[in-house]
Design goal:
- The structure is a single chain.
- The protein has about 260 residues and is of the alpha+beta class.
- Helices cover about 55% and strands about 10% of the residues.
- It contains nine helices and seven strands, in the order βαααβαββαβαααββα.
- It starts with a strand and ends with a helix.
C-alpha cells in the first residue's frame, strides 16, 4: 500500500488565501486539492496518462510478460503427447528444442502464477531462456492474457477510486473526481478488489487528508517514482491555485 500525505506549507498558504477569496472553507479547499492530487497521481503512474494510449501500453506489456516466460503449444497432438510424457522436445521455428518437464503448466491458474512469480518490480525485464520457460496449451495462455488485460491499470485505478472517495466524503458537490474519470482503470481496480480511499484528519484550522492506494505494484519505483509523487502533488497545488485565481478574477469582473 502506498500512502501520499499532503503537507506543503508554502503552497498551502497560497491555496488558503485564494480559497478564502473564492468562498471555500478549509475542508472544501482540501477536498479540491486532494481530488486533483488523485488525478495527478493516476496520470503519473506508469505508463503516464489515463487515456487509451496508456491502456494499450499496459496491454502490450501484459502480452510481452507472457511471451517472455511461457511457450504456447499450438498443436493439440503435441500438447497431448507433452502431458502424457511422450515428448521431451517441441518444434520451434523448424527446430526441435528440449524443454523442462517440471515447467509444464497444466492450468490457467498455474500459468498466471508462473508469469506473476517472474515479475520483478512489476515487470519481466528479460526473456527467459528456452528451457527455463513454462510450457502451456495456447488456449489457456490466451484465456489468462484476457483476464490479465481486464485488470490492466489497477494502480492507476486505485488513485481514481481514492479521488471518488474524496467526492463522496465532501459536503459540497463537484469537489471530487467524477465516477466516469478513467473508467477503464477504476474498473480494473474494482475487479481486482484493490482499494483506493481517503482519510480525513479533522482539524478546524489545519485539516489534513491522507490518500491511500492498496495496489501492490504501486510500491514499485518503476510504477510510481518518488519524484513523480512529488511532481503530482506539486502540480495539484498549482492547478487548484490557478483554478481559484481564474474563478475569483471572473467573479470580480462580473461585479464591476
Amino acid at each position: 500500500m502506498l500512502q501520499a500525505k499532503i503537507d506543503m506549507p508554502q503552497l498551502a498558504r497560497s491555496i488558503k488565501l485564494w480559497s478564502k477569496e473564492f468562498g471555500d472553507t478549509n475542508d472544501e479547499a482540501l477536498s479540491r486539492l486532494s481530488a486533483e492530487t488523485c488525478r495527478q497521481l493516476a496520470m503519473k503512474t506508469q505508463p503516464w496518462g489515463i487515456g487509451a494510449k496508456a491502456q494499450k501500453k499496459i496491454s502490450k506489456a501484459i502480452f510481452l510478460d507472457a511471451t517472455k516466460t511461457v511457450i504456447s503449444v499450438m498443436d493439440a497432438d503435441q500438447w497431448s503427447a507433452v502431458l502424457k510424457g511422450e515428448l521431451n522436445a517441441l518444434s520451434y521455428k523448424g527446430v526441435w528444442r528440449k524443454f523442462t518437464r517440471g515447467n509444464i503448466l497444466r492450468s490457467q491458474r498455474e500459468i498466471n502464477g508462473w508469469i506473476e512469480n517472474h515479475r520483478i518490480g512489476g515487470k519481466i525485464r528479460n526473456k527467459l531462456p528456452w528451457r527455463q520457460r513454462g510450457i502451456a496449451w495456447h488456449a489457456d495462455v490466451t484465456a489468462v492474457l484476457k483476464k490479465r488485460r481486464n485488470l490492466a491499470g489497477i494502480a492507476k485505478g486505485a488513485w481514481v477510486l481514492a479521488g471518488i472517495d474524496v467526492s463522496q466524503k465532501a459536503k459540497k458537490k463537484g469537489l471530487g473526481v467524477g465516477v466516469g474519470y478513467a473508467k477503464w482503470a477504476q474498473t480494473a481496480a474494482t475487479r481486482a478488489g484493490v482499494r483506493g480511499y481517503a482519510d480525513t484528519i479533522r482539524n478546524v484550522y489545519h485539516p489534513k487528508m491522507s490518500l491511500h492506494n492498496e495496489a501492490r505494484h504501486t510500491r514499485s519505483s518503476r510504477i510510481l517514482k518518488t519524484r513523480d509523487i512529488k511532481t503530482a502533488i506539486n502540480s495539484a497545488f498549482k492547478k487548484v491555485i490557478r483554478y481559484y485565481q481564474v474563478a475569483v478574477h471572473a467573479i470580480e469582473a462580473r461585479t464591476k
